[in-house]
Automatic annotation (TrEMBL):
Signal peptide: none annotated. This is PEP-utilising enzyme, mobile domain. Residues 4-54 form the PEP-utilising enzyme mobile domain. GO terms for molecular function: transferase activity, transferring phosphorus-containing groups. Gene3D superfamilies: Phosphohistidine domain. It comes from the Bacteria.
């Protein structure tokens, strides 16, 4: 699934976790430690992910 994603949002992890390494290799943004991401973001939601600022914004619900 990571190869199909435009960005990664992960509930729990650190700077050396698998998701971060894969995001770097795929040149896609990644935000770690959002804690509530799997409860807030749903399949089909349109989101803005800013890896530099560490923010995830749901623009449009599914």
């Amino acid at each position: 699934m990571m190869f199909l994603a435009d960005a990664l949002v992960v509930d729990i992890g650190c700077l050396l976790s698998h998701a971060v390494v894969m995001a770097r290799e795929l040149s896609i943004p990644c935000v770690m430690n959002v804690r509530e991401g799997t409860r807030t973001v749903r399949t089909g939601d349109v989101c803005r992910v800013d890896g530099s600022a560490g923010t995830v914004e749901v623009l449009e619900g599914a």
